[in-house]
Structure formats: C-alpha cells, structure tokens
Amino acid sequence: MVIMVSRLKVLQFLSASALALVLAGCGAPLSATWQGFPPDATGQADGKDTPRADAGPDCAQVKCVALTFDDGPGPHTESLLDILDEHEAKATFFLIGKDVVKFPDIVRDEAARGHEIGNHTWSHQDLAKISVAAGQRELSKTDAAIKEVTGAAPTVMRPPYGTIREDHMKSLDLPVAMWSVDTFDWKTRDAKKTVKAAEKVVPGSIVLMHDIHPSTIEAMPKMLTDLKARGFHFVTVSQLVGDPKPGTDYKTGRQAAAGN
Ligand code: NI
C-alpha cells in the first residue's frame, strides 16, 4: 500500500521557530528525567510562541495517566496527534524502527509536539526468542533512526508482546515501559470497547494502545474527554514515573498503588 504523507502539513506546522527548537534539541544530553526539550534549548526570548514540551503537571500532586501507542508510526498517526493537541494531552509512542524511516515527518512531528518517543525494536521482534546480540541490533538500529530524524535518542523502550528475557534486560540502556491497562484495541478494533477499557484507569496507570488502527484513533476524543472529566492529566511515561532507570521495568507510575 502506498501511503501519502502530508509533507506540506508537517512543514506548515514546523514554523521557523518550531524548527529552530527541534534543531536546538540536537545533541543535547539526555537527562534521566525526560521532560521534553532541555529548558536551555527552548529559553530564547523569541520562544514564547513556540509549541514546546514542558515539565508537565506534578504527578505527585495531581491525577496523571500515561497513554501509550505502539507499532507506529502509520497513516493514522497524524490525526491522532491533532486530537491529542486539542485535548492538551502528551503521550508516548513506541516506534517500529523500519517504519520510522518510512514516515520520518510523522516521527519528527511527534517529537516536536512534545510527545515522548520510545523504541519498539526495528522489526517487532520477540525479545524472548532472539539472542541478546540480535536484540541489541534491533534496538540500536532503531535508536539511530529515531535520533537521525528527531535529533534525540529515544528515552524508553517497550519490548514487542511485552516479553523480554532477563539477559536482554541486563543489556538495556533504557528504562522498560510495560503497562497496567490493556485496552485490547488491536483485538477488538472497536472504538466503544477501547473507550470502555479506559474506565479501569487509576492515577499512575500506563495504558496500552496502537495508533495503527483507525478504531483506536476514533476512540480517542471520548476517552480523553472522559478521563479529563475524572480529573486526569495526560503525561508521558517518563513524566509519570518521574525518574525511570535503565534496565528497570515499569507497569505503572507514581500514585498507582493509591488507586482512586
Ligand atoms: Ni507491538
């Protein structure tokens, strides 16, 4: 299938100032607590009209949830980005490396709009079934592709199928983001069921979804509206967890134990 990426749209979005912000992010050291672009890279006097990531809400004080989208980028991702912007929501995207090189403009847009970028291997390999060396190749190739496109390496990873062996875990230089709420959007392909699944969200939940399915995008306006009505703020995985450590896996962020 040939997919036309709206290059014009992306270019329109990337105003000169936004472009400067992306370029300013190049080569900036990765902080353990990812909070978007480093403040010193965005603090120019002319930066006030620039769409920029910030530290986000204080998830120790307010109800936060991390919405996560796996297996993209794909042809539906741009509409999702617009919906997230309309609801002032930040999310985390776990990208397939071979699709990063197919849709670089979308990946650049995800980063420019302040979402967190995660590594989901080059070709969606099951890390329980391949060697550590093969896994490292899958991950490092994807790291490089993301860095090439956005100027920054990914800050988290999620193993395909949520499976990973201990030897792989030990070899990782990124935190591992699992999830606590599975919407089963890939299975039901039903927007109503996807919305319903998010009723299980509690403060600190990490929600698993996939932006390659139209039904998932269709579910988003209502899911975001419902969760917002329940008082939730939408943050990235790193914002939710606070200070994720490499080689450690996180199913939830702060507050999850408290429930609600
Ligand atoms: Ni996946």
Structural overview:
By secondary structure, this protein is an alpha/beta fold. The protein has twelve helices and nine strands. The protein has helices at residues 7-13, 16-24, 39-42, 77-86, 97-100, 104-112, 132-150, 166-171, 185-188, 191-197, 214-229, 237-241, and strands spanning 64-72, 92-95, 116-119, 156-157, 176-177, 181-182, 206-210, 233-235, 249-250. Strands 1, 2, 3, 4, 6, 7 and 8 form a seven-stranded parallel beta sheet that branches. Strands 5-9 form a two-stranded parallel sheet. Helix 4 packs parallel to helix 11. The structure holds nickel (II) ion. Nickel (II) ion binds next to strand 1.
Short description:
The chain has helices spanning 7-13, 16-24, 39-42, 77-86, 97-100, 104-112, 132-150, 166-171, 185-188, 191-197, 214-229, 237-241, and strands at residues 64-72, 92-95, 116-119, 156-157, 176-177, 181-182, 206-210, 233-235, 249-250. With 260 residues, it is α/β, with parallel strands linked by helices.
Topology, pairings included?
Elements: H1 7-13, H2 16-24, H3 39-42, E1 64-72, H4 77-86, E2 92-95, H5 97-100, H6 104-112, E3 116-119, H7 132-150, E4 156-157, H8 166-171, E5 176-177, E6 181-182, H9 185-188, H10 191-197, E7 206-210, H11 214-229, E8 233-235, H12 237-241, E9 249-250
Parallel strand pairs: 1-2, 1-7, 1-8, 2-3, 3-4, 5-9, 6-7
The structure holds nickel (II) ion (NI).
Helix count from the secondary structure assignment: 12
From the alpha-carbon coordinates, what is the Rg to the nearest angstrom?
17 Å
Shape summary: globular
**Helical residue percent?**
25-40%
**Topology, number of strands:** 9
Q: What is the CA-CA span between the terminal residues? A: 45 Å
Order of helices and strands: HHHEHEHHEHEHEEHHEHEHE
Strand percentage = 5-15%
> Are any ligands bound, and if so which?
nickel (II) ion
Structural class: alpha/beta
Mean pLDDT: 84
Describe the largest sheet.
7 strands, parallel
User: In terms of per-residue confidence, which ranges show pLDDT below 50 for 5 or more consecutive residues?
Assistant: 1-53
